[in-house]
Amino acid sequence: MNPASRSGPRGSNKKGANREHQQRSVGCSPIKLAAVNWPRIDRLRLSALFRQRVVAQGLCRRIRIVRMKPGVTAVAVLTLALGMGANTEAGDAAASPSDWPTASPEEVGLDSAPLVEMFEYARQHSVPVHSVQIVRHGRLALDAYFYPYSAEMRHDVASVTKSITSTLVGLAIDQGFLRDVKQSVLTCLADHAVAVLDDRKRKLTLEHLLTMQAGWDCGFEPKEARLLEMRRSPDWLQFMLDLPMVAEPGTRWAYCSGNPHVLSIILTKATRTNALAFARQALFEPLGIHDVRWPADPRGHNHGWGDLQLRPRDMAKLGQLFLRQGRWRGRQVLSDTWIRTATSAHVERTVNRDHYGYLWWVKGEDYPGMFEAVGRGGQRINVWPAKDLVLVFTGGAFEPGDLAQFILKALKSDQRLPSNRKDSARLQERIAAATRPPSPQPVAKLPAMATRVSGRTFNLSTNTLGLRALTLEFLRPAEARAEFLWNGSHVNCPLGLDGVERFSTNPLVDLPQAGKGRWLGKDTFLLEVNLVGAINFYTLKLAFAESGETMNASLSERTGLNNEQLSGAVAP
After folding, report:
1. 106, 416 in Cβ contact below 8 A?
2. Do the beta carbons of residue 451 and residue 474 sit within 8 Å?
3. Under CATH, which architecture does the 105-433 domain have?
4. How confident is the model at residue 312 (pLDDT cuts 50, 70, 90)?
5. Span 234-277, pLDDT tens digits
6. Fewer CB under 10 Å: which end of the chain, C or N?
7. CATH code given to domain 448-570
8. Beta-ladder partners of 69
């Protein structure tokens, strides 16, 4: 399986309402343009053109097309967003699109001592957390990174992507590309024939996809098998549309990753660009989010269910946007109506105590008002309006709740706390220590098997990871190199033999990977490849035959994606 291929587990805005919230924007100055002679241009198409090219870039808030006389159309009023920073909301006044205002924990009512305990817990239990960000009252109070991850890396946000896809649907409705969530899925995809069509499928709406209540045969099977089947099919959309219906839409909840991918395709058709391009224009650029990667299917549709890569600070911006009801630096980026509806509970019963909104998880009675975007491996954006709080977690297979308990303990007041120099200093020490690599360890003399297999290519038996061949080279006492033929690509991975990872770039995910290995005996080598920001951590335990001509291997992945046995033989 491709290392980036898996992700873990309301109301509409009518055009009139959209115009209303646009006109409420502050700091806008009208600019009148002279009449332009466009004798054959339809007024509605012209208005739509401006909405696409100008409104989505954050420049235009209102366009009125006036008929001057037959054959002549004039753009009468073009309201530009000038001086947008003149009236910002409390809590984000100091934020720039590219950075955050910062504060000490005590300045925003957090006690540093429990946060120190959080770092100690992570260290003592070897928690594979990659980052923790705390934003309170609009200020970044904790911005922590844990080796081998670093602030300069993007991170696969896994199924947090689903919440972003939902947000793009809201933006498409705000901007008039889609009518509302009651719109028929089949109407949006009218150019696709459907093999198995019945009355239930005709009733399918965007809202059913957003709430995971499509009713087709997806999400009821273990381990999201339907997602894998979709990805192996020649036409992913056709695969989804041809699924048989097993329930009336809107009556049964099932976590189907194909649903948001269908929404991504609908976004492509509605906006006439793909989801990533639309997101850059309508969402990411207004928030100052630039370092983004979002893989696409063979037809150019971005994976609506997962695999989006963002930096943790930018994940926090998205959380803050929702906390502030769609506003960022005084600008209404997304309608507050959409945010309230998307983060309300539309489904009461899911697989746990949480409820479900529009591809957002909605917490229950334990944390009233909290909602979150959730991805496998520990990826989270938590928004808790009652506490004016945004939390971001990234990691490589951990439970964020294990660390969140310390943050909850640190929440002492809505007001500033007295300064705490001792614990503040301890916290800064822990933040710095978390970024440091381990110390190199002594390396024992390599066994004879290392020389026997070095430089030899082993063809591997079929496996779900898509590894076809492996070559190991033991060049220096403390370093080796592995080369994989992985999903058709040659992936080189330096390995530290001294307990310290060696870094390189994995071309399959365009992110750094960290490799290390060690001999467990005279004929067994343990190879570890950590994709870090791509979540997955692979372990290969290689047991070589005495001749060095064949081997047996155990392949496992820390989040549970892979766990299998394979064999290898030296290539002829």
Report:
1. yes
2. yes
3. 3-Layer(aba) Sandwich (3.40)
4. very high
5. 999 999 999 999 999 999 999 999 999 999 999 999 999 999 99
6. C
7. 2.40.128.20
8. 72
Verify cis geometry, omega within 30 degrees of 0, for the bond prior to 400. Answer: no
Instruction: Quote the CA–CA distance of 550 and 564 in Å, as a whole number.
Output: 17
Domain segments of the chain as ranges: 28-82, 105-433, 448-570
pLDDT value for 365: 82
What does the mean pLDDT of the chain come to? Answer: 86
- What is the predicted pLDDT for the residue at 69? 34
Terminal C-alpha separation, the chain: 26
Nearest to 314 by CA among 274, 285, 294, 336: 285
- SS3 call for 313: helix
CA distances for 417 relative to 103, 142, 144, 421, 469, angstroms? 12, 16, 21, 12, 58
Largest CA distance in the chain: 92
pLDDT at 30 over 60: no
d(C-alpha 415, C-alpha 410), whole Å = 13
Among candidate residues 166, 206, 165, 202, the one with its CA nearest the CA of residue 182: 206
Q: What is the mean pLDDT of residues 530-544?
A: 98
SS3 per-residue string spanning 158-187:
CCHHHHHHHHHHHHHHHCCCCCCCCCEHHH
Which tokens in the block code for residue 151? 């602030």
**Structure-block tokens of residue 351:** 């697989």
Query: Could you give the CA distance from residue 113 to residue 423 in angstroms, rounded to a whole number?
Result: 6
